[in-house]
Structure formats: structure tokens, C-alpha cells
Amino acid sequence: MPIILSPAPATLPFAAPTLADALSRLRQDIFDAAGPSPRWQDSDLTRAIDRALDQYSFVMPWTQTALLPACGGSRLYAVPTAPGATQLPGQAGAGPSWWVESVEFPTGFFPRRMVPFRELLQPSLGTPPAPTVAANGSAAGPLNGAYQYAVTFLGIAGESAMSAPSAVLALAHQQAVVSVPLGPAPYCTGRTIYRIAGSGYPPYLWLATIAGNTTTSFVDAVADSGLGGAAPVADGTLNVPLIELQLPDSRLPDPANPGALAVTYASKHVLAANGTTVPEQHHDVVLLGAAAYACLAFQVPTNDLFDYQDGELRDHVSEVKTPEHWQATGTALLALFKDRLEAVKQQRDAAYAATSQWGSVPSRWQWT
To answer: How many Cβ atoms from other residues are within 10 Å of residue 145's Cβ?
Structure first.
């Protein structure tokens, strides 16, 4: 399973503004100071900021490079995720990549050696068949009691659901031999064996991981105290983003010295409690977009207003213009936001090699 070698940052690239700072600045921009009865709740403004980050990231995505250890003879690798990318409240975890920009292999050469690749989704590896078990002859061992075994498939990334359990195997200070099924090639990179303790009752706990997809048996001489964590309850292999190196077999990583891949990928920007990935010169762009979306969202509930005239006093009270004014304000701010995004795009194109869109290949790249 590929591992990101480059360390995840303790903090995001920029310490300010934090999400709290952004909410305070946004309220100032839309003249809605926090108080006992603000027009917008924090959750509403957070959603508006999230929408603005989406649009900004389409123009100027957060690009990173991760080093993945190469596997000898393998052309399939998991797409890395943005380290430490907690997006907004309720969106915890690493941020998914939107697309892969380039793959360098091997690394450490000048000029850099970019290789062709394609992106695909890993299919589900399915549920393994139940393993078969037997006592290991008369060999003495630490197993004493009633045991059952189960297995899972390890994908390029992710682990399948657990198989059905094996038959019950009663042992008296013996060892066990577990027959392990093979997984679907080329996506299966290993198998994991789980076992219940000698009491004969679940849970199924980690026993061993078999690397590769060729070994079909395992001798169990592990005491109950050597078992690990619990088996997964759901399939984690379905639709995992992968990259496939478009190289002939002779160009694939050497098993004796596989090296590493440098994968540059794009993802959504982050604005979280500990900082942001948006550069300082573009903070106001994101807040402008958030103000536009906040005004347009506030316009919706104001549609339920009234136009009233007292027949006797002939007083005419009307609120029907209120939604129109909110919509006009939001639309005007949205137009300004789009203009700023276009300016950001032009600045980006001036700073980078000219491409028609993100993901295109700059002319200076040299395929190898």
C-alpha cells in the first residue's frame, strides 16, 4: 500500500485567517455584526464560504506533491490525499484530490522525468471465500481451545470486508495451518488473516498480513496475547482513486531498487480552525464570493413576505420589494466575484506555463 513519505504539516501553510477570523471579516463586509439576533447564523456563513472556496479552487487549486514509494513491477498506485486538510466543520479528515497533475518517475534526475499516466477507480475486491483450517500435524504450539479464522483482501488502497468464518478448529497446545484464498489481480496486494481467541467467541482480531498475492498458506503459532485490532466490517476498496503508469514493463520500477514516484495533484483549498491554504492576496476574493452567496441565500426566506392594505384606514404596508433588493445585491456581488476570479486566472496563467486548463501538459515538460 503506498505511503506518503513527505510529512504532513503540523499547521496549514498560512496561520491566518482562521475560520473564526473569516467569519468575523465576512460579517463586517455584509454589515451583520455578531449579536443576539444576527441575520445569518455562523452555519449559514460557513456554507457560503465553502461555496466560494469551491469556485476559487476551480480557478486556482491547491497543488501539492507527495512522494510514493514505488513497488517493484507495479504500475498501479493510490492517489494521495491532502495531508491535514480538514475543510470546514462537519468535513473532518484528509481532503480528497480533485485530479493528478503530473507523475515523475524516477525521481532525482534533471531534467525531471515526467511519465504518462491515467486515472481510474479501483473496483471492489469483493468478499473473500472462507479459509480452510487444519491442525499442523503433531507440532506443539500455544493454541489451546476452539478457534475460527477469517480473511480480507488488501487493495492498492483499502481493505475488503471480512470473509465468512472458517470451520471451528479445536486445538490442544498445537499449531494451525490456514489456507488463504488469492485475491483478484492486479488490484490485490496482500491478504490479512483474523482469528478469534481460544475462548471461541468473537471479535475477530488481526493475526497476520501476507504481502503479495501468491502465498496460499499460513502456519499459526501466535498466542492470544499477540493478536491485534478488530477486523473491518465494511468494504473499503470500492472506487478508491488510482493512477496507472502508462509504461512498458521494462520501464516499471525495478524490484531490487524501486525508488519513488513524485505525484503532483490538485485539491480544494482549506479554511479551517488552524489556518488556510489560500494565499493572502486572495483572501478578499474568497470573502467577496462568500458575501454574494450569503446575500443570495438570505433572499430566499424573504420571499414569504406580504403586501397589505387596510381598507378603512387605507394604510398600505408592503415588503415585496425586499427579496428583489437582496437578490440584486447578491447578483451584483456575484458578478464582482466572477470578475475577480477571471483576474486570478490571468495572474495564474502569467506565472505558470501556458496551458488551456489545469491538467494540460506544459510544452516544457519532456516525456520519457
So the answer is: 15
